[in-house]
Every structure is written in C-alpha cells, then in structure tokens.
Amino acid sequence: MLENIEPIVLDATNNVFVGPNEFFKIVIDEFDGETIQAWHIEDSEGNVSENLAKRAAGNHIDLLVNKNVRTVWHFGDRIATNLVSEEQGQRIMLEQEMATLQAELADLLATWDEVEEQPDAVAELQAQLAEILAAMDESEE
What we know:
It is a single chain. The chain is of the alpha+beta class. It has helices spanning about 55, 70-110, 110-115, 120-140, and strands at about 15-20, 25-30, 35-45. Strand 1 and strand 2 form a beta hairpin.
C-alpha cells in the first residue's frame, strides 16, 4: 500500500497527480474554487473511470485502488456493493415515477378534448417526465 509523505494538492491550476511509476493519474475535471464537481482516475493503459465526485458531493477525494491486493479489496468490494445497490434503488424509483407520469399523461391524451382545456396539466406532466429522464441519464453516467 502506498502512502504519501507529503500532501497532494490539486486545484484548478494543478489538476493532475501522477502516481508512482506512472501507474495511475488522478485528474480534477471540474473545480469551482470550493467544490470538486468532477474528477476521475486513469490507469497506465489509458482506462478512465467515471466521475468519482458524485458520491462525496465534491467534498473530498478518497481512493482505494487494485482489486487484487487483499488488504484493499475488501473495502472496495463492500463499497462497490453498496454503490450498486443504491444506484439500482434510485433507478427503480425513477422508473416507477416515470411509469406513473406516463400513465397520467396517457389518460390525459386519451381524452384529448378535455386536455385542450387543461394545457397547464399537460405542460406540468411533460416537465416532470423531462426531469425524470434527465435524472435517469445522470444515473447512467
């Protein structure tokens, strides 16, 4: 396990840390001066992770790498399992919300004459559907 003697300082100007023997890089993709909005890790073969700032909400960068090292992987396995469960739960909730809204919209469209008299209701449902679709797109990233 590697531990740094000196702290690593990353900011908008110095946004890349190259690890020992260039095994990995930590890259800050988006930093507003206070909060890290996006960061990722790259391995020596050019593989890039997804945005890792989501879970910490930009408040810290914690990283355990290498599933083949027994001293580290049990942490990673537990965290990965929790993350997958959380994301699956969020996706299921979003899919249920979307199905409900689609059913409401279908009911409105089935009675189109009445819908023309309720444009605000249609616009509201369309806006809610758009929000859910955007949230689902974010959860896939």
